[in-house]
Design a protein that fits this description.
The chain is of the alpha+beta class. It has 15 helices and 15 strands.
Length: 427
């Protein structure tokens, strides 16, 4: 390793030629942030961050990781702290322990500046000063703390109203989009659904005893800004059951401003189900039965188009990233559910708990919900949670494993009638 440079505190700043290369590109580098923390000589965490940089450089040089797990926690909790112990502690003693706090954020991830300052002050006092907003499950990631500081740090976080999130084989920290507080596409009260669900499952979050992790996520519309459909075991997506709202005057104004070609290319032709058509008078026709609520047209023409008035949610189950059987999209459990009254929200919470409990009783060790559904079959899963099969329960877009047989003969007769002229012409 190259010559180290002394600092005011007496602990040298390590030479990091390999890490320095990461600062040479056009984009901001995390290395710059780590160096800034390491050079904060008036902070208690400066020595820790210097040794962290040294260990990271060493890892790049040897192409080997030096972190291992262990057991670290706070009183009464079995989750929320990710232990990190260094196998290179003799060489980098100040970063021998670099544990991570997973802290639950407010629903919708809304903060005020006073709260942010309190969080930063607590972490500068007890930890490394390194914070990530947010992890994939929504946690505030406080990265870098010694074991002896874990309990005092938690106590202070708890005093200002914050709790630890989930980790390990339990319910993970839930995540909801900004919702109606900032987004006009919201179709239900995302924050309320989020808090009611998680408040009912705190035991399963803080004292994990499940086969594997279980994630809840809440998105207000089909844009799915928190990746609920494919990165949560129980996903709640806002939708609507009636026709999309159209302001034809605003639509005509958009056509006039952008031109027919742009509207056709960027809106009409981008509809995945060809549900849109542009009329000669520059108004819009929508085949609402074919609309799959992809949100593209609404995103492009926010003044002209809005979600319908009959709003609610679609509930999906089994989404996940790769591991045993690869990535899975969530399977629709409830095509449409209104969320207006307190009773409606309680029904959603009851469904979430029923799904969780059935999975906990029937899943194999280290098996996600989607993997269990693949193993036992969707029909058995639906029977286990008490839901009747529905033709709208789709695994892949625009396909269904269910066939309606009522009116079958009449439909066959119609098909034969349509085919008859073609057969005559062929002869």
């Amino acid at each position: 390793m190259a010559q180290e440079n002394p600092t005011k505190s007496g602990k040298p700043m390590p030479a990091t030629p390999l890490l320095d290369q990461l600062e040479s590109g056009p984009w901001p580098s995390f290395v710059t942030g780590l160096k800034r923390l390491a050079l904060s000589e008036d902070k208690q965490y400066a020595p820790m961050m210097k040794d962290l940089l040294g260990q990271l450089e060493h890892s790049y040089d040897t192409r080997k990781g030096y972190w291992k797990g262990g057991t670290v926690g706070v009183r009464g909790y079995g989750a929320g702290i990710i232990p990190r112990f260094s196998e290179a502690r003799d060489r980098f003693p100040a970063s021998a322990e670099f544990h991570t706090f997973r802290v639950q954020p407010p629903a919708g991830m809304h903060y005020d500046t006073a709260t942010m300052r309190k969080l930063c002050d607590i972490w500068e006092k007890h930890g490394s000063g390194l914070i990530a907003f947010h992890g994939q499950s929504g946690d505030i990631m406080f990265q870098g703390i010694r074991t002896e500081n874990v309990q005092p740090c938690f106590d202070e976080l708890n005093e200002i109203g914050f709790d630890l999130g989930g980790a390990g084989a339990g319910v993970r920290t839930s995540m909801s989009c900004v919702g109606g507080a900032r987004c006009e596409q919201s179709n239900y009260n995302e924050q309320k659904a989020h808090r009611m669900m998680i408040n009912s499952l705190l035991e399963e979050m803080h004292r994990p005893a499940l086969p594997y992790k279980f994630k809840f996520k809440f998105s207000g519309c089909g844009n799915d800004c928190v990746n609920a459909s494919h990165r949560s075991d129980f996903a709640v997506l806002g939708t609507w059951a009636d026709d999309m709202q159209v302001d034809q005057n605003e639509f005509k104004a958009a056509v006039k401003k952008r031109g027919r070609k742009e509207i056709i290319d960027q809106v009409i032709n981008m509809c995945p189900t060809r549900a849109l058509s542009l009329n000669d008078d520059d108004t819009l026709d929508i085949d609402n039965k074919s609309c799959v609520r992809c949100m593209h047209c609404i995103n492009v023409l926010t003044k002209a188009l809005k979600p319908g008035k009959v709003r609610g949610v679609t509930v999906l189950a089994g989404g996940k990233r790769s591991l045993k059987i690869g990535d899975l999209m969530g399977t629709v459990l409830v095509p449409f559910m209104r969320l207006e009254t307190e009773e409606d929200y309680e029904k959603l919470v009851a469904l979430g708990r029923k799904v969780l409990e059935f999975w906990a009783e029937n899943a194999l060790d280290h098996e996600r919900l989607g993997e269990m559904i693949e193993r036992i079959g969707l029909i058995n899963f639906l029977d286990g949670i008490g839901l009747e099969p529905d033709a709208n329960m789709v695994i892949h877009p625009r396909t269904s494993s269910y066939v309606r047989l009522d009116g079958w003969d009449e439909e066959v007769a119609k098909w034969k009638a349509r085919r008859a002229p073609k057969a005559v012409a062929a002869e």
